[in-house]
Amino acid sequence: MDVRSAEQALDIRIPSDVQYIEGIVQQVVRRCELHAFPRRHLALNVPVALTEALSNAILRGNLDDAARSVHVHAEVDSSRLVLEVRDEGQGFDLEACTVDPTTPDHMMLEDGRGLFLMRRLMDHVERFSDGGNVVRLILLRGVA
Fold this sequence. Notes:
- By secondary structure, the protein is of the alpha+beta class.
- Helices cover 38% and strands 25% of the residues.
- The protein has a 5-stranded antiparallel sheet, covered by helices on one side.
- Helix 2 (21-34) runs antiparallel to helix 3 and helix 3 packs antiparallel against helix 5 (114-121).
- It starts with a helix and ends with a strand.
């Protein structure tokens, strides 16, 4: 894959099955590599935030229903990565659902860290409805 093909948006629909997460993450990370994103972004920010967004879409948004699908749209250029993950769920309140897992009352919970991690690892996270429930993640490339 050269830089020209990396500039083409990734636009893919996957079944609601966690087995597809790793392949999507690899495709997005590869596009970021070709635009010289910093190593930390490639090893931590992008894979963790995207994995959490996809997991939430499959397990929470689509309720692990194999009849539903998840749409992933990713655009990468020399300045930023924009990811949109759309599920077929009812949506949620981003503020109300984001909890701090480092507080004593949340430290022992097994879930609830995904939105917190996305917001810590990306420069901007928002949720909106557009023919489905969409989470948009934006990561600025910064200096390599």
